[in-house]
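Supplementary Note 2. Why include the ligand at all?

Several targets in our set were suspected to adopt different conformations when bound, so apo predictions alone were not considered sufficient. For every target with a known small-molecule partner we therefore ran a joint prediction. The input for adenosine monophosphate is given below.
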Amino acid sequence: MVIQMEYGLIADTYERMEATSKRLEMTDHLVDLIERTPKELIDKVVYLTQGKLYPDYAGIEIGIAEKLAIRAIALATKVDEKVVRKSFERTGDLGETAQELLEGKAFKVERPLTVEKVFETLDKIARTSGRGAIETKMNLLSNLLRETSPKEAKYIVRTVTGKLRLGVADMTMLDALSVVYAGGKGARGEVERAYNISSDLGAVASTVARGGLAAIRKFGVQVGKPIRSMLAERLRTPQDILEKMGGACAAEYKYDGERIQIHKRVSEVALFSRRLENITHQYPDVVELTRKSIRAKEAIAECECVAVDLETGELRPFQELMHRRRKYGIKEAMELYPISIFAFDLLFVDGDDLTSRPYPERREHLEKVLAVSDRAGLTRYRLVRSAEELEKFFEEAIQDGCEGVVCKSVGSHAVYQAGARGWLWIKYKRDYRSEMTDTVDLVVVGAFHGRGRRAGTYGALLLGAYDPREDTFKTVTKCGAGFTDDDLARLPKMFEDYRISHRHSRVVAKLEADVWFTPSVVLEIIGAEITLSPIHICGLDKVRKGSGLAIRFPRFTGNYRLDKAPEDATTEEEIIEMYQSRLKRLPA
Ligand code: AMP
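The joint prediction is reproduced in C-alpha cell form.
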C-alpha cells in the first residue's frame, strides 16, 4: 500500500508556525503536524520542516540560486522574468512572489500534491550535477510549481532557495516527537540521547514513531552517523579545576588543530568535523592513517589533527592547517601542510558502544586499538593530583606547541556526554598570547642534534635575544624550521669555529643544548606569536613571576644577518614590548 500525505497539510502548518514566535505554541503546531503524518513519512517531514532533505552531515543541499528560481517561477507562471524580478524587489521574498504570481492562475491540477512528490523532486534537484545541471534543475522546479497551490509554491520556493527558516530548533522538534510518541516531554532526555549519538533527527523520528520509547532506548551508535561532540567547560586556575574534579584528573595536551571524528568500517573511512560536516575529501592522509592505525573492524574515534613539520617533528600553528580547508588542490596542500593525528577518545569499537563507559576505560580501549606511529599517536596524558602537578604539565604542553590542557574526569560517572558542554572536561588555556607580525634578529647560542633525515646535522638551533644592561644573550626560542637542505648541510661546518664545550658565560639558558656556541651569528626569524614560557629566560619575571617569554613556531627567513654583530640583535626589552603591544585575551 502506498502511504500518502498531502503537502498542503504541511504548508498549512508552516503558515500557522510563522504566525507565532512562542516556543510552546510552536511545539503545539509541530505536535499537530507529527500526529497527522504517517509514520512511514515522518523522517521526510521532519527534514523538510527544517528546510532540509537529509541530516546535515550527509552534505546534500538543495541550493538553488535566486536567479535560477526566478527563471523557474517565470516559466511556471508564464510571465516575463522581469515581472518576477519586479515583484521580488517589492516583496523581498521569492516565496511570496511565487505565491502572488500563481494566485489567479488556475492550473488544472489533477491530484493533490503529495509530500513524496515534493521530496522526490527536491531530491532530484539536489543531486543533479554536471553538464546541463542548471537547466535540469530549473525545469524540475518549474514543473513542480505548476502542480502546486500558491501557498505550497511559497514554501517550496523558500525551501529550495534555503530561506524556509521556520525557526524549528532541534530541541523543539525533539519535544514534539516526545509528546506524540514517547509519552510526553518527560521522555525528552532519552529521545535527545538518540539524537546526540546520531545527529539524525529523521532517524530518531522514525524510530520513536515506529517503536516508541522502547525502541529509542535501544537506539545505538552507528558507524557512519556522527556523534555530536562533547565539549569542555573552562576554568581559570588549576586549583579550581582540581576542586571541580574531586582532587584528581587526567590532564591532556590540548593540541591546536582541527577536531576530527573518525568513522571506520573495514577499509571504509568517513571523517567528520566538530560541526559534523563530512570532511573526508579534505584529508586523504587521515583516511590512510586511519586504515593503518586503527586495529579494529569498526570504530569511532576522536582525534585532533595538527599541522606538523615532518623534519623536526614539531607542531605547526593552526593557521597552517587552515590551508587544508579546500575543495581543490588537495594533493598539493597535503604535501605542503602535512599533518599528524592525536587520538583522544574511542566511542565505539567492534559492536561495542563505549559512550556510556567511564573515560579511563575508553582510553584503555583506545590504547589497545591504536597502532602508534610517527604520524598517529595518542594525546599526551598525565594523571595529576595537585595544582602544582597540573601547572607543570600545562607548562610542558605550552612548551611543546600546544594551547594548554584539557582536564578530564576519571570518575566512574565520566561518560561521553554527546552534544553537551559539561564539567567532565575542563580546558585550561594560556591566558594570553601575542601575535607576531615583525621579524626578529636572534643570536645562535647553541644547537640540538638532528634525528632522521637530519642525522649528522642540527635539528634545531637555540636562539637568544640581547640584554644590553647585563651584556648577555637570553634564550627565547628553539628553531628548526625554514632551513633548506643546503642550509642544513652547511650548518655544522658553519658553526665549527664557534663551538665550545660548555655554555658561554654571556649566555643565560635553562635549556641544556647538545652543543654550545660563542654568540656570533645572527639569524632573521619570524614567529607566529610570543607566549609566556617556563623554559626560556628572555623576559624572565618581567611579565609574570617565574615565567619568561618564548617565540612560538619560529621559522628562519633565510636571511643570515651577517651585517649584524650579536650586540645588534633584537633586545630583550624589544621582545617584551612586542609581547605587550599585541597582547590579546584569548576568547573562551
Ligand atoms: P575549545 O575549542 O577551546 O572549546 O576546546 C575544545 C577542543 O579542543 C576540542 O573540540 C578539540 O578540538 C580540542 N582538543 C585538543 N586536544 C584535545 C584533547 N586532548 N582532548 C579533547 N579535546 C582536545
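The chain has a mean pLDDT of 92. The CA atoms of residues 46 and 202 lie 6 Å apart. Comparable summaries for the other entries are listed in the accompanying table.
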